[in-house]
Write a structure and sequence with these properties.
By secondary structure, this protein is an alpha/beta fold. It has nine helices and ten strands. The chain has two domains: about 150 residues, Rossmann fold, CATH 3.40.50.300; about 60 residues, no CATH class. Helices cover about 35% and strands about 25% of the residues. It has a six-stranded mixed sheet with strand order 6-7-8-3-9-10, sandwiched between helices. The protein has a four-stranded antiparallel sheet with strand order 2-1-4-5, covered by helices on one side. The longest helix is centred in the last third of the chain and has 16 residues. The chain binds adenosine-5'-triphosphate and magnesium ion.
Length: about 230
């Protein structure tokens, strides 16, 4: 059982970004996806969740070919994408956001979200755009707690948050993993991501440059991957 992409090619208009990506997220495992800015991490997550149609290759979920499905069909197939940025409806209240995030048939969505993030339970009537950055990210993350998906794609969910809030977000990620969801984790806090991860992939210019266990990824190899990108710019 896994979320797997094979030979994936995708991009924007005439620009090819992913140039034949093979990656496997085994069920119940945490996979860190690292790589320099612009290497294609966000593009890969978008292709996995149906937000971007690949021009070649396949996306397979638990053995079934799901290539080219629309985002809501991939949600049904068990894939939840927490996109980059604060993915909330800023003009709606916390309660209204939760109602929109909850899949049909989850009547206790408010309780589940408040259980995951007690602060949300205390601010149900607050307009989401007035929450702190960390609270907004918790609200965005609560979709993963409501959907209980088999695979969760997380794009820089700790971006721009204070260290204490980053710790809280990572504690939530650990709880999601403990509940049995597999995580594909794109993170700028590389050491936190590697501490949680069973496997790590490094992307470079739309290709996988390294795959292995975190212990196999030594610090100098990682630094080299990032520095190489910096000097190319
Ligand atoms: N909507 C778009 N239209 C055109 N090009 C895009 C679009 N989104 C991304 N790109 C380009 O695709 C390439 C890969 O971008 P992507 O966002 O996947 O990188 P990333 O690895 O997530 O980078 P970062 O670490 O900065 O988030 C970049 O060259 C970027 O400029
Ligand atoms: Mg990105």
């Amino acid at each position: 059982m896994s979320l797997a992409v094979s030979g994936l090619v995708a991009g924007y208009g005439a620009t090819t970004v992913l140039r034949g990506v093979d990656l496997v997220v085994p069920a119940g495992h945490v996979v860190a996806l690292l790589g320099p800015n612009g290497s294609g991490k966000t593009t890969l997550l978008r292709a996995c969740s149906g937000l971007l149609q690949p021009s070649a290759g396949t996306v397979t979920v638990d053995g079934a070919d799901r290539t080219g499905l629309a985002p809501h069909d991939l949600v049904t197939a068990g894939v939840c994408h927490v996109p980059e940025g604060r993915a909330v409806f800023p003009g709606m209240t916390v309660a209204e956001n939760l109602r929109l995030l909850a899949p049909p048939g989850v009547p206790d969505h408010v309780e589940r979200a408040a259980d995951a993030f007690p602060v949300l339970g205390r601010k149900l009537d607050q307009v989401a755009g007035t929450l702190s950055g960390g609270e907004q990210q918790m609200l965005a993350l609560s979709r993963a707690f409501l959907q209980a998906p088999r695979y969760i794609l997380l794009d820089e969910v700790s971006m721009g948050l204070a260290p204490r809030v980053v710790e809280e977000i990572f504690a939530a990620l650990r709880r999601l993993a403990e509940r049995g969801s597999a995580l594909l984790l794109v993170e700028q806090f590389v050491h936190l991501a590697l501490a949680l991860a069973d496997l790590v992939y490094v992307m470079d210019r739309g290709r996988i440059a390294f795959q292995g266990e975190p212990v196999e990824l030594d610090a100098s190899a990682l630094a080299a991957a990032y520095l190489a990108a910096g000097t190319r710019a």
